[in-house]
Every structure is written in structure tokens, then in C-alpha cells.
């Protein structure tokens, strides 16, 4: 049976990790994640995910770095205020594990990515009577493939930022009323 869920922005997040100075990882997150998940466990072809992340909600715990990453040298948030994902295929990988293929659009560039998804959790009823489930997803992208090419050479060799970006999503979904 097909069920429609809304991503709860107050209880969902998108985090990323990137190599800095070739010696450590720097993490950041986006505080605004929204979208819709359609889940049909008996007919995965009828399942889908559409999500939108507000680039302006970026937080790396450093205001100057946040401003730089939102600038034209990186996300160019003024022109491209959203990162979006739209699934094209959902496949079961095991009990509570899925492979979701879809188009990830960053800075106006869309590339196919595969999300490794764990979930959905068992349903839970919140104090207001809503039915909720949770899920987590991970993927890895090359930022250069999305036009995020800014970098700086280091005097000691190498570059300031790695090209690989790990992405982790944690979402809480609210079941929507049947149409």
C-alpha cells in the first residue's frame, strides 16, 4: 500500500564532510530540509523521494566560512538557493535497506547519485496524533562534478579542500492523510 510522507524540517538534517588541508575533516550541515517521500513496500517502482535543501541554511560553525561557501566561488546561493534530489529508482538491498538512485542538483548541475538508505523505522505516534517514521541515507560525491571547483594550493604541496564530499541525511517523516 502506497503511503505519502512529508519530511519534517524541524527533525531532519543534511550533513556533509570534506577533507581540509589534506589532514582533517571539516563538517557542516544544512538546517532546512523539506520534501516528500512516497513509499510502497509491495511495489517499490511506485516509491519516490523528492527533497529540497535551502543553501542559505548552511552552517559550518564559522560565519566567515559560511559566507564564503554561500558565495559565487562555491554554491552561489544568490543564483542557486536550493539543492534538490529527485529519485528515479528505489531498490531493496536487504531488510530495512534500500538503494535509491536519482538526480542530485547542485548549482544548476544535475548528476545521478545513489543513496544508501536505512529505514524506514517502525511507525510511532507523536503526542499530537501524527504517525511518524525515520530514515537515514548516505552518499559520496565529487564536488567538482557540480561546478564546486574553488581551491587553493598549499605551500607544503596539495590543496586546501578535497574533492570527495560525504553526505549524510537523517529524516523524520510525517504520514500524510490519504487523498
Count of β-strands: 12
Distance between the termini: 13 Å
Structural class, judged by helices and strands? mainly beta
Average per-residue pLDDT, rounded, comes to 93
**Strands across the major sheet, in which order?**
1-4-5-7-8-9-11-12
Apparent shape:
elongated
CATH structural architecture:
Beta Barrel
Strand content: over 45%
Helix amount: under 10%
Low-confidence stretches: none
Most strands sheet: 8 strands, antiparallel, barrel
Number of domains: 1
Query: Would you list the SSEs in sequence order as H and E?
Result: EEEEEEHEEEEEE
InterPro entries: Lipid/polyisoprenoid-bd_YceI, TTHA0802/YceI-like_sf
Protein name: Polyisoprenoid-binding protein
Pfam family, one: YceI
Organism: Edaphobacter dinghuensis
Keywords:
about 5% helix, Lipid/polyisoprenoid-bd_YceI, about 180 residues, 1 helix, about 55% strand, Lipocalin
Structure description:
The structure is a single chain. With about 180 residues, this protein is mainly beta. The chain has one domain: Lipid/polyisoprenoid-binding, YceI-like (Lipocalin), CATH 2.40.128.110. About 20% of the residues are buried. The chain contains 1 helix and 12 strands.
